[in-house]
Amino acid sequence: MLLSTQNFQQDSQLKTAVLQLPGEEIKLPIVSGTEGEQAIDITSLRDETGYITLDPGYSNTGACESKITFIDGKNGVLRYRGYPIEELAEHSTFVETAWLLIYGELPTEAQRARFRELLTEQELLHEGMRHHFEGFPPHGHPMAMLSAMINACACYHPELLDTDLDPDRFLTAVAILMSKVRTIAAFSYKMSLGHRVEYPDPALSYCRNFLHMMFSKPHSRYEPTLQVVKALSRFLILHADHEQNCSTSTVRMVGSSGANVFASVASGVCALWGPSHGGANMAVIEMLEKIHKGGENPKSIVEKVKAKKFRLMGFGHRVYKNFDPRAKILEKTAAGLLSTLGVADPLLDIAAELASIALTDEYFLERKLYPNVDFYSGIILRAIGIPVNMFTVMFSIGRIPGWIAHWYELYHDPDRRISRPRQVYTGPTRRKYVPVENRS
Ligand code: CMC
């Protein structure tokens, strides 16, 4: 089988790829994205030839066309709706960035004010929902609670489950998800401590309100510094979307069946949980803590990695093969936050040592392995006071707008079809049933 590309109709810039198969040849159109990314459109391949493509892990497969996020992994570029991540991290807020991702434009003053109002309206949990927490074991994993509670939102909002969601009802669903998720996260933390929950305060901004629910106590109100609020907002912005990653693809896959936005987003939380994805931020801190306590040292870790006995958590990325722009911003943010808080976290020094050994080692250079977003994010979360088992929950709060944006894009796609990949079957071929008494 041979695949070659050729200019098909030079004047209209249309190109095709020619696929040579045993005894036949097929021309497949090449589609281009707005940033010059090229893809071979194989939608007619199976019908015309009987062949399918095989791409475990989907490294070479575009599952959709999308207008939301652009990544150039070779050059470390990340843009939301065309805006560079560096500019958004510096100047925007999480709420504004969420709007941008979902609706495609930065909000006007009026839209931003309305969105803030709706987020405030939706910040409380139905008492019935609050009682769900009592059914969870106090030390149950907060990611399990988060996905269960997001799914439970569907029970409390049956009016938002229709397949013809108008713009107003969709906006309500957005506000429910974005607002309640931080209440759910903070309540689960308080429950794990056996403390009374702190109700949200409608006077506070998105990040301040979350920090208040997490750290205020009945007789002492938590007042974060501006630097803490900014660091949290930046953390959330940097996690808000990352095109077709594992959890977002899961959300799109679930949404493709027509499942409602709550069910689809809850599935994203489950996919994010794994250590190869969002769970890596917990694994990084656990690794750094182990080194700090003397169980390991950076050099021995690197040796273990090279001997294939260990994966360096917070390193490597499927798409970034030069640097992860989010990690660069977070590295600076972590150092700045620690210095304004006057905290010297030995884990940041260990992370820097580990990174400098890895970044000069042949093993890592050859494989293009660089620190990713999870390498420094835990240092920031630790400095803010977030417990390690909630790190992936924090990633989820950040990723909610991205999941919603992708669900909504798919919802409006006139060509939407249920996601249903094929497989190459490699199991036994036809066998004859044997009654139990005759089996050896
Ligand atoms: N430590 C050591 N070796 C690694 C690492 C790592 N973190 N990542 C990849 N490699 C090696 C891997 O062993 C393989 O080597 P070889 O060619 O000798 O077999 C080569 O690099 C290619 O690895 P791969 O597994 O084919 O790469 P992938 O694109 O399938 O995996 C990844 C990407 C992010 C899952 C992987 O790099 C990894 O497991 N990293 C650690 C977990 C992590 O930090 N995840 C967070 C990702 S960023 C945030 C997010 O998306 O959630």
Description of the structure:
The chain has 440 residues and is an alpha+beta fold. It has three domains: 2-54, Rubrerythrin, domain 2 (Single Sheet); 80-277, Citrate Synthase, domain 1 (Orthogonal Bundle); 280-384, Cytochrome p450-Terp, domain 2 (Orthogonal Bundle). It is 50% helix and 9% strand. It contains 18 helices and seven strands. The protein has helices spanning 45-49, 85-91, 94-103, 109-121, 127-135, 142-156, 167-193, 206-215, 226-239, 246-255, 261-272, 280-292, 298-306, 325-341, 346-358, 362-366, 373-384, 391-411, and strands at residues 2-9, 14-21, 24-32, 38-40, 69-72, 77-80, 83-84. It has a four-stranded antiparallel beta sheet. It has a three-stranded antiparallel beta sheet with strand order 5-6-7. A hairpin with a 4-residue loop joins strand 5 (69-72) and strand 6. Helix 3 (94-103) runs parallel beside helix 18 and helix 4 (109-121) packs across helix 7 (167-193). The protein is globular. The two termini are 44 Å apart. Carboxymethyl coenzyme *A binds at residues 57, 245, 276-278, 280, 305, 311-318, 367, 369, 372-374.
